[in-house]
UniProtKB/TrEMBL annotation:
<feature type="domain" description="Peptidase M20 dimerisation">
    <location>
        <begin position="210"/>
        <end position="307"/>
    </location>
</feature>
<dbReference type="Pfam" id="PF01546">
    <property type="entry name" value="Peptidase_M20"/>
</dbReference>
<dbReference type="InterPro" id="IPR017439">
    <property type="entry name" value="Amidohydrolase"/>
</dbReference>
<dbReference type="InterPro" id="IPR036264">
    <property type="entry name" value="Bact_exopeptidase_dim_dom"/>
</dbReference>
<comment type="similarity">
    <text>Belongs to the peptidase M20A family.</text>
</comment>
<dbReference type="InterPro" id="IPR011650">
    <property type="entry name" value="Peptidase_M20_dimer"/>
</dbReference>
<dbReference type="Pfam" id="PF07687">
    <property type="entry name" value="M20_dimer"/>
</dbReference>
<protein>
    <recommendedName>
        <fullName>Peptidase M20 dimerisation domain-containing protein</fullName>
    </recommendedName>
</protein>
<dbReference type="InterPro" id="IPR002933">
    <property type="entry name" value="Peptidase_M20"/>
</dbReference>
Amino acid sequence: MPDSPFSSLLSQHLPDLHSYEELYKHFHRNPEISTLETETSARITSELQKLNSQHNSPIEIKTNIGRTGLIGIHRNGAGPTILLRADIDGLPILEKTGLPYASSKRMMDTHLDNIEKPTMHACGHDFHITCMLGAIETLLACAHAWSGTLIYLFQPAEERGAGARMMLDDGLYTTHGCPEPDVCLGQHVFPFKAGHVYSCAGPTMSAADSYRITIYGRGGHGSMPHRCIDPVVIASHIVVRLQTLVSREVPPDETAVLTVGSLRAGETVNVIADEAVLQINIRSVSEYWRKVLLDGLKRTVNAECEAGRAVKEAKFEKLNEFPLCDNDEAVTRKVEESFTGYFGERHDPTMKPVLGSEDFGWLGSDIGKPYMFWFFGGFDPDEHDQRVKDGTTNEIPVNHSPFFAPVIQPTLKTGVEAMAVAALTFVGKK
């Protein structure tokens, strides 16, 4: 049976989550694209102000950090400083869940390409926001039982790998007066069994690097290829050759993925284009093999361009970058002890690394501080068990799917509890 010093505390002070269920539905109905989360940020600010009023709380709220980011600083006596983070942006995806609270929102992506796009919380950031707010109310209610400083950070633009960097570059720890944390903590809902928490030490989410690469040929009539330099042929050789970076240069016991997400060239059937554009995503779970793959990408592209007589060197444009999420061993083991004590068998500390990516780690690594990132399940427990029996877990809609629809409970309660327990691990009075 679970044995946790926090069980009694949370059972007494966990808020009624009905209002948070409704708040979650509000955020789900009203997602906003990365860097444009103005209404989301305003609603979070309003909720923090409401909690301050209800609990006579000293939380200091600072807004407009890195455009739409915000923090709440909760000073509660002497002790460590712990940062809790939730990301807040949605994705340009047309929702197909059929939920009564599904998003039908469209918005102009004025920060990227000025194109109107359908918008959906297809990665669970609506849960992250709501769980954080629920955890804050819990921590306010039991403030007598802990001592230290908690920073509640709501981060924009995670989906573009930009939000953490935007907040840092805007002076999060300097201009905006956020105390430097001793530890940073974050979590993510995933299509695992709802009610359960999952963790591991060391590399937890992959580094990711995305590029747009333009290959330059010489266009002309499809009947006269000898008078042209076909960039499609060069690009096709690049696509095939790149697959050998993982299969022949990275050891089989290392984890790496290289995906050519798109190859675009030409507009009609009888014309040889003068340019081909590839978009490439590379994921890795060690800095050494990350460098091998990035070096190999440039070497391969340049060599194939030379072999194909490209008219000039390929153009490399970096689209985004996510750091390796590398959980600190000591911090992770300490939190895992609390999770096992609180959740019992509903905590799995043997999770394998996930090849999705996060920019959360920069909030700690930029100032040389440790961090931990964990997962909580969002898929209906009974259906999950049945799918395990049937061998159909691969059919569960995953993050970024238009069908991604975590069940509200016990997902919400678990996320609130996990965030509160992790924070109390460091600031709770023993």
